[in-house]
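MODEL INPUT / OUTPUT PAIR
PAIR INDEX: 1
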Amino acid sequence: MKRIITNFALLPLVFAACTSVPSSNHAEEKDSKIVVDSKVEENSLDKEFIKSLENVNLKLTTSPKQTVTGTAFNSVFSVFVSDKDGAPLASYPVTITYPSEKVDGKVVFASTNILSDEKGMCTFTAEKPVFACNEKLTFAPVAASESSEVLEAVAKKAVSADWKVKSDITRKGAVLFVWEFNEKNRPTRNSYEVLSKLKSYGIWNVGNAPINETTDIGKSLQILYKENYEIIEDQYGYLICGTIKFSQPVTALESGNGYCCTLVAEISAVNMKNGKVVYTNKFEQYAEGSNWNNVTQICKDKISKTIADSLVFGL
């Protein structure tokens, strides 16, 4: 009995499937037409929106100075939204994109939409920054769609302000174990350039680490941390360790008009309070100069500034 019931139950389904093919094709054709019509409508709306942007202007009116982690910006970020004749646009939707957090050393951005007030002003008050970075906050018209044409048009109307937050190395200071190597890959000296670049940021409590001999090169970060901590404890905020080396010997340019140089650096930072490695980065710098001394100095200056900038705004 069970087999008979099962067979009878399947028959209507089989016939239904057979007879539904034409109607399915008809439905697909109808759905296809709806999709095409929808795309045409979307394209039309996108063109209208892009055209409307010709009557919109955003002007940055207020942006704060750089700050330090844990200290609020000294002012708000704001823009004035107007038409092409300069008259304020009230209730105009604006997207604000700003740095919101740092994950695995990379800055993550967030966005929020607000409306301009009756005077055409859009104002954004940032929360107290808790991580260092050197990025941008951007004001832009709210995009009508995600099409490339719309996003490109919106980007042309966008205005940006610096979002600069220095790390607490500017307050807590650091000791350096950063060694330069010569073209034969032999250590020559502590990097005076990195030290001086950090001092140029107004960091007064910075100097070379007490444990700082060529025999210490190659020791693990944890050993270097422990040996330095035994002497200075956490009087300084960070222990900066690393090397600056030639990727290849200085080479004469093919043109015969000078020389070129490429330096590479590996830099790490250890928190002197708890021994945690809080920063690692690699750098490469190319430079050209008139002679050996000139090109190596130019290259050292450039890579040292990049390292210092990264520590101040990325630690």
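PAIR INDEX: 2
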Amino acid sequence: MENKKPFPVIQISKRDRFIVLFLTTILSIFFLRPYISDLNVWRGDTFILNNDTKQGINAYKKATIVNPRNGEAYDGLGYFYFTQNKLDLAKDAYKKAIKYTPREPMNYYFIGFIYFKEKNYTKAIIYEKKAIEIKPDYLQAYNIIANSYDKLGKFKEAIRTWEKIEKIIPNSEKPSIKIKELEKKLEI
């Protein structure tokens, strides 16, 4: 039989134990922050499904506190504020979402839609075009652009936009109806 020796006992001072515990705590907080933030986003998403606005806003706000760079949390906040018609808060939330998730077309779309509702058609077009740069077949963004051009009296641009919509949804009658309406406005 082999002669087994016991493991040596290492003496660790209280100070060293405190340092190890402190560093372990700091590192776990650092590495768990994104996970905790994402959990709150998932909670917020659940509240969207259940139409629980107050709890949803709280969950998304907690997510932004834990991880201020969580674009999805700002996206969720924007959605809840939008549904409550708090357009300035929604716009701010979506702009923060864009800062941290710049490749998400829906954030640009909602800001453009808010500008459209505020009758700032030029800015609406700018944001909707950014959404289309990311997602070229974004039908809702084209719709806002076409209607914005119409409201601005730029009927030729509106017609061109409706023609693009017609290519995306060829079996729909709406684009051709809109084009005919706009052509009549051009004749006047």
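PAIR 2 NOTE: The two ends are 107 Å apart (CA to CA).
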